[in-house]
């Protein structure tokens, strides 16, 4: 039995274009629309899974709605003479009414229940006169998600990002930096003073005054010994004189 025709509407329908330069991640968007009155399960597969990051790569599209799939090409060395052989396949099937486990549904699906569409990949570099325009448009593209994320924050969180609060935070950071610098200088001064005190104590121990004091003490000790010897000799002389008489 032949497979069913794809019920999802793909945009673009046949080719994903990735525009360089390819020194950074390049993203292409694939829109999947479900015009039916049934929920549809889908999967996105590629022949080069290591070269791409797909978000979301699977899920359920409610009846009458659509989703955007981001296909992110990882950085690589681009060769204009090499044609891309990468391909993508969008596989889908009608979701059962009593579905509880999507992975189980895929495993139990019959071949005739599956639908698929294939897309090829194309790489192209911007023209020289378009580089300036691309840089400006890239700035706008990158700023848009940031704005949307900030708008989705609670009021308490978004209010913290007001200009006044930002200025207060910057002033507080500057004050803390100055305080840290002041503490570092004080610590340095304390170390220098401590080293100076140590250097002063050392010369005092070996100063000329202490050396002269030690020399005087030595001389006094020597004089005392000489005087004692003289007294001893005098006493011996007196005793010998008395014995001679």
Automatic annotation (TrEMBL):
Subcellular location, principal: endoplasmic reticulum
Keyword tags: Acetylation, Coiled coil, Endoplasmic reticulum, Isopeptide bond, Membrane, Phosphoprotein, Transmembrane, Transmembrane helix, Ubl conjugation, Unfolded protein response
Membrane topology designation: Single-pass type IV membrane protein
Domain of life: Eukaryota
InterPro entries, per database record: Ig-like_fold, MSP_dom, PapD-like_sf, VAP
Protein's UniProt keywords contain Transferase: no
Stretches with biased composition (Polar residues): 137-146
Any single biological process term in GO: endoplasmic reticulum membrane organization
Record-annotated MSP domain positions: 7-124
A Pfam match: Motile_Sperm
Assigned GO CC terms: endoplasmic reticulum membrane; plasma membrane
UniProt biased composition (Low complexity): 148-161
Molecular-function GO terms, alphabetical: FFAT motif binding
Transmembrane residue ranges: 226-244
Record bears the keyword Endoplasmic reticulum: yes
Region feature Disordered, mapped onto this chain: 130-164, 189-216
UniProt subcellular location: Endoplasmic reticulum membrane
Family statement drawn from the similarity comment of this UniProt entry: Belongs to the VAMP-associated protein (VAP) (TC 9.B.17) family.
Record function comment: Endoplasmic reticulum (ER)-anchored protein that mediates the formation of contact sites between the ER and endosomes via interaction with FFAT motif-containing proteins such as STARD3 or WDR44. Interacts with STARD3 in a FFAT motif phosphorylation dependent manner. Via interaction with WDR44 participates in neosynthesized protein export. Participates in the endoplasmic reticulum unfolded protein response (UPR) by inducing ERN1/IRE1 activity. Involved in cellular calcium homeostasis regulation.
PANTHER family assigned: VESICLE-ASSOCIATED MEMBRANE PROTEIN-ASSOCIATED PROTEIN, VESICLE-ASSOCIATED MEMBRANE PROTEIN-ASSOCIATED PROTEIN B_C
The name this protein goes by in its record: MSP domain-containing protein
Organism of this sequence: Coregonus suidteri
């Amino acid at each position: 039995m032949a497979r069913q025709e794809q019920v999802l509407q793909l945009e673009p329908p046949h080719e994903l274009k990735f525009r360089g330069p390819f020194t950074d991640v390049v993203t292409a968007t694939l829109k999947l629309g479900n015009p039916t009155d049934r929920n549809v399960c889908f999967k996105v597969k590629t022949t080069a899974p290591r070269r791409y990051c797909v978000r979301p790569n699977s899920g359920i599209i409610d009846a009458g709605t659509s989703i955007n799939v981001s296909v992110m090409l990882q950085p690589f060395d681009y060769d204009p003479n090499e044609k891309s052989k990468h391909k993508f396949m969008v596989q889908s099937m009608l979701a059962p009414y009593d579905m509880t486990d999507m992975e189980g549904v895929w495993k139990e699906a019959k071949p005739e229940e599956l639908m698929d569409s294939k897309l090829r990949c194309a790489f192209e570099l911007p023209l020289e006169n378009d580089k300036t325009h691309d840089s400006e448009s890239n700035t706008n593209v990158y700023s848009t998600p940031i704005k949307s994320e900030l708008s989705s924050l609670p009021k308490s969180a978004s209010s913290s990002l007001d200009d006044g609060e930002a200025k207060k935070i910057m002033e507080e950071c500057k004050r803390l930096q100055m305080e840290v610098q002041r503490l570092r200088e004080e610590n340095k001064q304390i170390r220098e003073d401590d080293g100076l005190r140590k250097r002063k104590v050392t010369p005092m121990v070996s100063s000329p005054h202490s050396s002269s004091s030690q020399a005087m003490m030595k001389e006094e000790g020597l004089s005392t010994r000489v005087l004692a010897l003289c007294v001893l000799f005098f006493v011996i002389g007196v005793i010998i004189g008395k014995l001679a008489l």
